[in-house]
Structures are given as structure tokens and as C-alpha cells.
Design brief:
Distance between the termini: 37 Å
Radius of gyration: 23 Å
CATH class of the largest domain: Mainly Beta
Order of helices and strands: HEEEEEEEEEEEEEEEEEEEE
Number of domains: 2
CATH topology of the largest domain: Jelly Rolls
Structural class: mainly beta
Shape: globular
CATH architecture of the largest domain: Sandwich
Number of strands: 20
Length: 263
Amino acid sequence: MAYQEFANKPSVSNGDALNPTTQINNPAQGVQDEFELRDGDGRLDGVASGLGCSIDDTEIDIASGRAYVAGKRYSGGASVDFTGKSSDTYFVYIDGADDDGPYKAKTSSPTSGELVLCTVDWNGSDTLSNLDDDAKVLGLQAHDIVVALPGTAAAGVQAVIPVAHDLWVESVRIAMSSNGAGSGATTVDVHLGADGSKGDSIFATQANRPSLAHDAADYTVAVSGMPDGDRKPDAGEHLVIEVDEVAGTPGADLTVLIKARLR
């Protein structure tokens, strides 16, 4: 494989006239592009530090910090104004495709190239409320946890996982080789606790737990809704996998994936 030279590498000789575009501006832009490319290759989109959200009258203020979206670095220190928007629950996010105005709000969940910072309710005229600053995507490195539970699925606590690093839990996914029969579903919860305690569910809204109906196709992957309880385990705490419900005729070979990030 041939060595690929830097695309904007300047080539000059003694006595050449200085061209600001080709010899200064383009190389500087090329250096930034290269660093952003390497960040995009080596990191997930996420908040590394700061960028906390707070309510300021009809605006959401975004604190300074450091985040990466689509390989580009963002430093916060901005505000999003809700004046003129309709009443609804909004996601405040970074749009990696808009370099001129990247800090935005919308009612639909952000997708690829967009990074959630918080959620908030807007009454359509003059009041912001119910700010959830914990909705932000924390961490740049994946640290997924997979637990396989072979055999017939059973209700109850199935695994206690010691946490070695500070984590942020993104979602929980489950799959089975057989989803069972008869009636009901297989529903899995994850608790976060300290020594001596099972702790509380990371799903304050229990409807967000991942669940597989008995009549779903085998080998289907079920993805949880957003964890809206405490989903930031510290090193030394533990995560508890608990099967809250099984099908009338239990399924088999349950596997649980806890998608997490180092923070």
C-alpha cells in the first residue's frame, strides 16, 4: 500500500513568493481536518466534560465544556432560545452537520450526527420546566457488558456485575434463542447498587425496560427505552440483572447487553 501524503502539504523553494492560501490557510485547515478524522475514527460521539444545561427564562444555557460529534470538537458556552416554538418536550442537542449554528432543539429524538445534551418541557409561551440534564450522552469510549444466561429463562436476580470503572449506561438490549410460548413476555430490569444493596432500577419509567413478547420471532433483539433513573455507576458499585417476567412457557438462552461508556 502506497504512503498517502498529506493532501495540503506545502511544497516551496527558496525565493518563491508566499501564497497565503496554499502555503498557510490550506495546510492549517488540513491539519484540523486530519485531527478531526482521527478523533472520529477513535471516539464515539459524546460529551467528555461540562456542557451542563440550565434554564434561563425562555432559553436553555449550555455551559462550557468539551464534546465530539462527527469527529468535530464543540466547547459549549451557548444558548438555545425557545421563543416561538410550540408547546412540547424538546431535546436540546448538537447538530454536527451545522457548523454555523450547531446548538438546537427539536421534539424528535436526535439521530446519527446529532448529540443529546438534555431534555426540557416548553409551555409554548414563557416557561421551561422539567429539565433533565442527565439525558446527555456521556463518554467517548464504549464499555459494553454482555451476560449470557443459557438454559430456560427464570424470573429473579440472574447476575450481579461489579463495576470497575465509572460508567454511563446508554441502553439495555436482550435476545433469546426461543422467546417462549403461551402468553406474556420476557422483561429484564437492571438495578444500580452499592455494597449490601440491590439498589434501584435504572429505569424510573418501567415501561422503558427491554421486553420480548412470547410471540415475537426468535432471535429478535429488543432495545430498551432511555434509562431515566440513575444510570451512572461509579467504580466499586454493581449492576444487577433481574428478570422481572417470563413467558407463560419460558423461553431459553437469554443474553443481556448493557451498552455503556467510560466516563
